[in-house]
Specification:
Layout lengths: L4 E5 L6 H12 L2 E4 L1 H13 L7 H10 L2 E4 L10 E4 L2 E2 L7 H10 L3 H15 L4 E5 L2 H5 L5 E6 L2 H14 L6 H17 L12 E4 L5 H13 L8
Parallel strand pairs: 1-6, 1-7, 2-6, 7-8
Antiparallel strand pairs: 3-4, 4-5
Helix pairs in contact: 1-9, 2-3, 2-4, 3-5, 4-8, 7-8
The structure holds 2'-deoxycytidine-5'-monophosphate.
Length: 231
């Protein structure tokens, strides 16, 4: 049986988005990166001068957010266009300020509830690859295939470093490594929907694997989920 709903979870820079994008393209499914939503709420709070520690104000922003995610309109390495109130914020939501504050924002129950509701609506339509931290555990527990993609924190920090350099930013790899450790800690210890593999997830460590190797493995599972126990 072919999987119609595929959940891909894992820590920052584990390769989830690349895997999810390639998988969706191979299967002709929608690719949906849920991290974009938490990033957009964070950016909206920062832009409006709302302190990210102000839970009720940030929750109100999440409930009112005018957010749209569309197919990429520019060929600059983006996986999709992210529009906030009609404005392109695709790269702004990847800024260091958003990186620093997004874990705090994504801890708030009201923010998660608003985002989870929107994500479920999209996911339950099927023919979707949804990537995040809690897709297999909370957002779409009915997903027929759940992948938890991991990699060592050093490998992940290095990947982020290379990506930032490629975009022309001057960055320090140690600062990225420290920031990533802190984000892992916050994401996996929060009370609500923490980062963890679902019980029925297939866990893949990508530290020593190429993008192609991971994709081949997951594509075989997606085409026939009955093989899952053999992965
Ligand atoms: O995948 P990302 O780095 O773009 O995610 C940004 C943040 O959003 C991450 O620190 C945790 C949060 N997030 C979440 O809590 N739940 C999700 N399903 C996706 C992301």
């Amino acid at each position: 049986m072919k999987a119609r709903i595929i959940a891909i979870d894992g820590p920052a820079a584990s390769g989830k988005s690349t895997l999810a994008e390639n998988l969706a393209s191979a299967l002709d499914y929608l690719y949906f990166d849920t991290g974009v939503m938490y990033r957009a709420v964070t950016l909206a709070a920062l832009k409006s001068g709302t302190p990210v520690m102000d839970e009720s104000a940030v929750t109100a922003i999440a409930n009112e957010l005018d957010l749209d995610v569309q197919s990429p309109s520019i060929d600059d390495g983006r996986q999709c266009d992210v529009l906030m109130a009609g404005k392109d914020v695709t790269w702004e939501i990847r800024s260091p300020a958003v990186d620093e504050n997004v874990s705090q924002v994504s801890m708030y129950p009201g923010v998660r509830e608003a985002m989870t509701r929107r994500q479920r609506e999209i996911g339950l339509r099927g023919a979707v690859v949804m990537a995040g931290r809690d897709i297999g555990t909370v957002v779409l527990p009915e997903a027929e295939l759940k992948i938890y993609l991991d990699a060592s924190v050093e490998a992940r920090a290095n990947r982020r470093y290379e990506e930032s350099l490629g975009r022309g930013n001057s960055v320090n790899v140690d600062v990225i490594l420290e920031g990533m450790r802190e984000r892992d800690r916050l994401d996996s210890t929060r009370a609500l929907a923490p980062l963890r593999p679902a019980e029925d997830a297939v866990i893949i460590d990508s530290t020593e694997l190429s993008i192609h190797e991971v994709l081949e493995k997951v594509l075989a599972l997606a085409e026939d989920v009955s093989q899952q126990g053999e992965a």
